[in-house]
Target: Nucleoside deaminase
Amino acid sequence: MRRIDGAIARAWLATAVEEARAGLAEGGVPIGAALYGADGALLGRGRNRRVQDGDPSTHAETAAFRAAGRQRSYRGTTMVTTLSPCWYCSGLVRQFGISRVVVGESVTFHGGHDWLAEHGVEVVVLDDPECVAMMREFVARRPELWHEDIGE
Amino acid sequence: MRRIDGAIARAWLATAVEEARAGLAEGGVPIGAALYGADGALLGRGRNRRVQDGDPSTHAETAAFRAAGRQRSYRGTTMVTTLSPCWYCSGLVRQFGISRVVVGESVTFHGGHDWLAEHGVEVVVLDDPECVAMMREFVARRPELWHEDIGE
Model:
């Protein structure tokens, strides 16, 4: 697998940011994600749905993974997420052998992406200012919802 | 938190086994789980739904977790599962601070339960013969489905 081009990573992040913004507009936790195939095709996209569906199991990454449906292999796929993946979503990436993770930002929350890198996943952290601003504003405004979403 | 009584662990496992059997009868992956509260009340139960819903994100543990709905805290809760939790489901337990995991068996598959024990989760492995037999028979009969379910 070739290392991902920065312009492609940012273009893919835009899909995840759209999902996060839609979640914010719905009153939800503003985290979005998208799963891209080895050929660059979008396989699935989604957002955190804790508030919208009353469903604590739907984080952005698991929503994108579900939307992609059943796949025989995740070799060469890329999970793009606006925020560093929590242990739950990092476990998803490791278990299914997703090859690469593009992280919008890891400033407001530092999840399991170092652990993924140690286990052979290509991890790209973009430190995107819009992702940082969106989460920072959300955490300041709805701290109880944010802490609920990460089990703290 | 007191260590769990063996008779209680086995009684709770029976709920997870019922879910696994129901999944088997539906043509699905026969893994079941249940989440119990600190007071011993059943919070949620569920089974793997890869085949039934075409949904790769619904493992038994995530199904039970979803069925329990939004919870402010998982302190004192117990996740009971017929099979050693994969990395995805182990990540769920760690992220949300689920206090205890009761594992029906870890003979046919050894997931992340040692990692959870290292991170302070009370782990009880029961080596239940019915759980072993159910998975062994399933893996022999549907190896491609089993490998798909764990991303191998």
Summary: The mean pLDDT of chain B is 97. The radius of gyration of chain B is 14 Å. The helical segments of chain B are 6-25, 50-53, 60-67, 87-96, 113-118, 129-141, 143-149. The longest strand of chain B covers residues 42-47.
